[in-house]
Specification:
The chain is an alpha/beta fold and 231 residues long. 31% of the residues lie in helices and 30% in strands. It has seven helices and ten strands. It has a six-stranded mixed sheet with strand order 6-7-8-3-9-10. It has a four-stranded antiparallel sheet with strand order 2-1-4-5, with helices on one face. The two termini are 24 Å apart.
Length: 231
């Protein structure tokens, strides 16, 4: 299968005062197109750093990073921002919605960076909200939504540009178990029925069980891989 994400010999270091800390140690990773991968590991293991590299938010110190067919370790500035806008949708633990905007206006935000006209933008917004089951809440502000509904709006915002890849950082970490399972079922639908490749960081084994593969990081190295077996 075609690789959506490929890390080869990736090193990531941070400088803290006079000390250099190596967070990722010569990491290799392949995520196939259409896969749903969960990244797990203790605090400080490097899993969020991996997610930030894959999403083009951060750069590796060394190594090769190919995502959606592009050497993003070689992209900078506007070129990287355009690549990110076209290829990646982000879902965060705390939704990151603009409180003064309605659900539909929050979902529209990524499209404001494109050349699409107003009518086309709103058509895409309606499709995204319908996919996540919130077309009837389009005019509601975040304060008028439950936590699960707010996360669905955030997922619709991630989907509205029709990206190839969704990167999810603890997407159910602020939700109760039942609501979390609803969100995870939605991610499964996006993966299975809409062909989205998903890489999700989670500390929750029950959340990881929804993925097709689980990778465990410890001190910047992969130490274990599990594949879901269907009952």
């Amino acid at each position: 299968m075609t690789a959506m994400v490929s890390l080869k010999n990736v090193v990531k270091t941070y400088t803290r005062g006079k000390q250099t800390v190596e967070v990722l140690h010569h990491l290799d990773l392949q995520v196939a197109e259409g896969d749903f991968v969960a990244l797990m590991g203790p605090s400080g293991s490097g899993k969020t750093t991996v997610l930030n590299l894959i999403g083009g938010i951060d750069h590796p110190t060394s190594g090769e990073l190919v995502v959606a067919g592009e050497r993003i370790d070689q992209l900078k500035g506007g070129a990287l921002a355009r690549w990110r806008s076209n290829n990646v949708g982000f879902v965060f633990q705390f939704y990151n919605l603009m409180p003064m905007l309605s659900a539909e206006r929050n979902v529209e935000l990524p499209l404001l960076l494109t050349s699409l006209g107003k009518s086309e933008r709103m058509k895409r917004v309606r499709v995204a909200l319908t996919i996540v089951g919130l077309d009837d809440r389009a005019k509601h502000k975040p304060s008028e939504l439950s936590g699960g509904q707010a996360q669905r709006v955030a997922i619709a915002r991630a989907l509205v540009s029709d990206p190839k890849l969704l990167v999810c950082d603890e997407p159910t970490g602020d939700l109760d178990r039942t609501t979390a399972d609803d969100i995870l079922h939605l991610l499964q639908v996006l993966n299975r029925d809409y062909g989205k490749t998903i890489v999700m960081v989670t500390h929750d084994q029950k959340a990881a069980d929804f993925a097709t593969h689980t990778l465990h990081l410890d001190k910047g190295r992969f130490v274990e891989e599990r594949q879901r077996t269907e009952a």
